[in-house]
Amino acid sequence: MSTVESRHRIGAEIWIVLGLSLGKAAVYSIVSITARLTDGAPLAQQTATLNASQAERSWLDLTYQLLGIGFGLVPVALALFLLSARGRGSLARIGLDRARPGLDVAWGVALAAVIGIPGLAFYSVGRALGITVHVQASALNDHWWTVPVLLLSALYNGLLEEIIAVAYLYERTHDLGWGRVRFIVASSLLRGSYHLYQGIGPFLGNVAMGVLFSWFYTSPRFRSDGRHRVIPLVVAHTLLDVVAFVGYALVPEEWLVAMGAA
User: Fold this and answer.
1) Backbone angles phi, psi at 194, to 5 degrees
2) Residues facing residue 139 across a β-bridge
3) Which segments constitute the CAAX prenyl protease 2/Lysostaphin resistance protein A-like domain (predicted)?
4) Whose CA is closest to 186, among 197, 177, 173, 201?
5) pLDDT for 32-84, tens place per residue?
């Protein structure tokens, strides 16, 4: 296969994977923010719900939640399968292994701490400026499975976004000859774009998060034996969403009102 044909196949593969996952979410998000901006009501008076109930009956709602998470991870499996064509070392190449679990978790916690407070600041400032909608992190009814499902949802987001928007996208754009800066810009804008439905503030906040995460992933100082490490990003993202989802579900409503989150 010629170099030109190979590049065309890689480009097509990227579009297919993104079209089944984060790229699709980005398109819907752009349409959503367009609808919000032309709705007539200010963004500050609108609401975006992240974890909504799917049915009134508890068992049916749980079934829908688990199916959504399970099928939502299929594009992740596809991306990893495509990368595995390079050989058995492909997953280790992106750091999806158990080579250094303690250090990976430690870096993940550190990244979550670095992102957490500025993220709240972006949201608060955005709300104050009227460029961010009210984000309802959880609208699930109170069931025995509510917290476990929210934990799974947080892990799902971490795996989907970090493996596809960072690890997979870096490997494939690297195959196309992209430099580090070009990748960081593309990955960060992608991350921001599929959060646009929440408003301009979350878009900017997630672009900043994307810059930090993609810089960390591509930085030589954070590699292990020359390999990139995606697990710290998954850990960090999961922790951030756990705090947001479970915290929102468990914190008393009067506290949320006092913090301007309800």
Assistant:
1) -80, 5
2) 52
3) 144-242
4) 173
5) 999 999 998 999 899 999 999 999 999 999 999 999 999 999 999 999 999 99
